[in-house]
Amino acid sequence: MLNVSIALYLPNWILLQQRVEDLLRAEEVKNIYLIDNSPAETDIETIKSLFSSKKIHYLWNKGKDIGFGRAHNIAIRESVWQRTKYHLVMSTGIEVQAEDIDRLHWFMEHNPQVGQVMPKMIDAQRKVQYQCRLLPTPIDVFLPVLIGKKRRNSNVLRATGYDTIMNVPSMSGSFMFLRTEAALEARLFDERYTMYAEHIDMTRTIHRKYLTLYLPDITITNNEKQIQHNLLNWNYTVNMIRYFNKWGWIFDAERNETNRLTLQLCMQAK
User: Fold this and answer.
1) Is the pTM of this model over 0.70?
2) β-pairing, 211-222 with 166-167?
3) N or C: which end of the chain has fewer CB within 10 A?
C-alpha cells in the first residue's frame, strides 16, 4: 500500500481536486495527506465539498510556513506509524495517471533493493525535463547564477538520452516515490532545510544503501515552471550553504566517488 503527501501554499483548489481524484483511482493508494503551509486555514466545509473520500486528510499548520521537508515529514511519520510500505512525495504541478502509480508500486514490490524511483518527467509541451543529477558542487550551484542564467549546470545529466534506467544520487523533489523503510533509515527530510536542498539530501542518503532509480518507461507531466535560482533568492542561498556545511564544500570524498561511479554507469548504459 501507498500513502501520498502534498505540501500546499495558497493552492489552486480546483486544480488540486483534479490531482487528488487521479490519485484516488490508483488501487494502491491508502491515504492522501494535504499539508497546508498557507497563512489562513481553508474552511472545513470547503474541504469536504472538494474531497469526499475518507482517504483525504487535511492539516493546516496554523499559519506557519514550516517548509517543504518538515511538512512532508508529518505525513511520512504517519506512513511509518501505520507501517505503510511506500510513500509518495508529490507537488501539485504533477499530472500522473492512476495506472502508473500502480505500476510504480509493482516495480518497488519486485525490486526490494530500490529505495526511491522517479519516472520520466516532461513539461506541458512534452519536452523531457532533465531531472537526473550528480551530487552538486559549490561551482555547480553558485557559478551559473554569478555568470548568467543561460549557463547549464554541469551536474545535470543530459547525455544519456533519458531512455534507459539510471541509478542516480539526486532527482527532482516534485515526485519522490519512496520506500518508507529507506526514508526512515535516512531519518526523513532534514528539517534544517526549509526548501531547495532537502530532496537532494534525502536522495543522497538513501543512495548510500539502496538504488535510487530513474525509470523511463513511465512518464509524468510536470506543469510547474522550472525555477532559475539566483543569489538574490535568500532562501535558496541559505539552504545550499547549509547543504555544503553538512556534506562538505571542497573536500567531499563521497560526492566525488558517487559522481564518478554514476557517470561511468550512465555512459555504459547509453
Assistant:
1) yes
2) antiparallel
3) C
